[in-house]
Automatic annotation (TrEMBL):
This is Oxidoreductase. GO terms for molecular function: oxidoreductase activity. Pfam families: Amino_oxidase (PF01593). It comes from Actinocatenispora rupis. InterPro entries: Amino_oxidase, FAD/NAD-bd_sf, Zeta_carotene_desat/Oxidored. Residues 14-431 form the Amine oxidase domain.
Length: 442
């Protein structure tokens, strides 16, 4: 096909922008098509009245994110552009936010856990020491287990106080579906929460940097993608776009809908790569507040303590530029059950419910609220189920074709590192396609 583009990228999240940037650096004609009116996807930051509201991803890690740090250096960002988050992670227990959750120090101080719970944490630490390769969780002995299956090996307190809140709060998933191997691999890779970092100016910093160096068209939904005449044809709202290759850098269910003619080795993994929805409410405060007993940047809440709320992030502790001087910003992330129940509910009752729940942990929050912002993600994060892992090996072995994929679901690693790393895997496959006079594996 004599296409107008070498590569069309669908989706201006961090995966799609990373793909486009690498291909552009290789001298290829690339354009990114984004349905939303701004770039960033689940790493988008909304700016309102001096507040910077991270709508999805909250942080990255100083450890276990090698592809991300390669991109940071390539873009010329400095350490000041990726500051460390103060406060770390706390666990709410017995009426107080207990600091040092996820750290060795937490075993000494207790972090609100009983002696039995701390012993279970020590045992779980040994599990982390023998963790799966984060790029290949499907090859682990844990690949056939869910987090709920894994929890049965330990004291119930570990599941209630640590595993369930982690999976529900940071991945929006249910322990009965989320894969044990990806969770253990990710926790082992990132390590201590004191290594957490954020982007100065908002979590969309990298996305904005990348978007400034590639051709991006926002507000342009792609309706379908099909292979044709040695290339691809994209149907958009005002016609068709032809290219040698396309990269679908969107959630797996969206990719499956865009490319219904995908071969079996792709379609089966796409179908198995289910997503957990996520619902978040940002509270713009007239003063800085904090959870009782802690200056932590994030507080995990157990489902037994609150069926509606999974985690609170104190964004003005996370980074000083998230709220205007003298004000505060707190985000409530709904529990997996509440996210599913409230995803289609109107903003006002959703914000009122989560404000009422958050008040229990952040006294004085309700009267300090100046405004609320509700963010919904029908496709929050991939669940990385055992079924998906069982189909991943065939997906990875598929031949090069005109339609390629990128996203954290490709890596079975639900985080921004998974998205950036997926771009590194996609780019050489795309280049072999566009540089070849014959479509390989069509």
């Amino acid at each position: 096909m004599s296409g107008e583009l070498d590569v069309a990228v669908v989706g201006a999240g961090i995966a799609g922008l990373s793909v486009a940037y690498a291909l552009r650096r290789s001298g290829r004609r690339v354009r990114v098509y984004e349905a939303a009116d701004a770039v960033g996807g689940r790493m988008r930051t909304e700016r309102r009245d001096g507040y910077r509201i991270d709508t999805g991803a909250e942080m990255l890690s100083g450890r276990g994110y090698p592809a991300t740090w390669r991109m940071i250096r390539r873009l010329g960002l400095t350490p000041a552009d990726v500051p460390r988050i103060d406060g770390g992670l706390a666990l709410w227990r017995n009426g107080k936010a207990r600091r040092n959750a996820g750290r060795p120090l937490g075993l000494l101080t207790g972090a609100g856990m009983s002696v039995r719970g701390r012993l279970a944490m020590l045992r779980f630490g040994r599990e982390l020491a023998a963790a799966p390769d984060p790029e290949h969780p499907e090859r682990s002995a844990l690949a056939g287990l869910t987090v709920a299956d894994l929890a049965e090996r330990y004291d119930p307190e570990l599941a209630a106080a640590v595993l369930r809140p982690l999976v529900g709060g940071f991945f929006g998933a249910l322990p009965d579906t989320f894969g044990a191997a990806p969770l253990v691999a990710h926790l082992a890779a990132v390590g201590d929460p004191t290594r957490w970092r954020t982007y100065a100016g908002g979590m969309d910093r990298m996305a904005r940097e990348l978007a400034g160096r590639v051709d991006v068209t926002t507000g342009t939904p792609v309706e379908s993608v099909r292979a044709a005449d040695g290339g691809v044809v994209l149907s958009v709202h005002d016609g068709e776009v032809r290219a040698r290759a396309a990269v679908l850098a969107v959630p797996a269910p969206v990719a499956a809908a865009l490319h219904p003619e995908a071969p079996a080795d792709e379609a089966e993994y796409l179908a198995a790569s289910t997503y957990a929805p996520m619902l978040r409410v940002a509270f713009l405060l007239d003063r800085p507040l904090r959870p009782t007993g802690s200056r932590a940047a994030a507080v995990l809440v157990r489902g037994t303590d609150n069926p509606h709320l999974a985690v609170l992030t104190v964004d003005h502790h996370k980074a000083i530029d998230r709220a205007p001087l003298g004000r505060g910003l707190v985000t409530a992330i709904a529990s997996p059950a509440a996210s599913r129940l409230l995803l289609s509910a109107p903003d006002c009752p959703v914000a009122a419910l989560l404000a009422e729940q958050a008040e229990r942990y952040v006294p004085g929050l309700a009267p300090a609220i100046r405004a609320t912002v509700v963010h919904r993600f029908p496709y929050g994060l991939p669940e990385c189920t055992p079924t998906a892992l069982a189909r991943r090996e065939a997906f990875l072995r598929r031949p090069v074709r005109p339609v390629e994929y990128a996203g954290d679901w490709v890596l079975a690693r639900p985080c921004s590192e998974g998205a950036v790393r997926s771009a590194e895997l996609a780019v050489p496959r795309v280049l072999s396609m566009v540089d070849s006079p014959v479509v390989v594996g069509a």
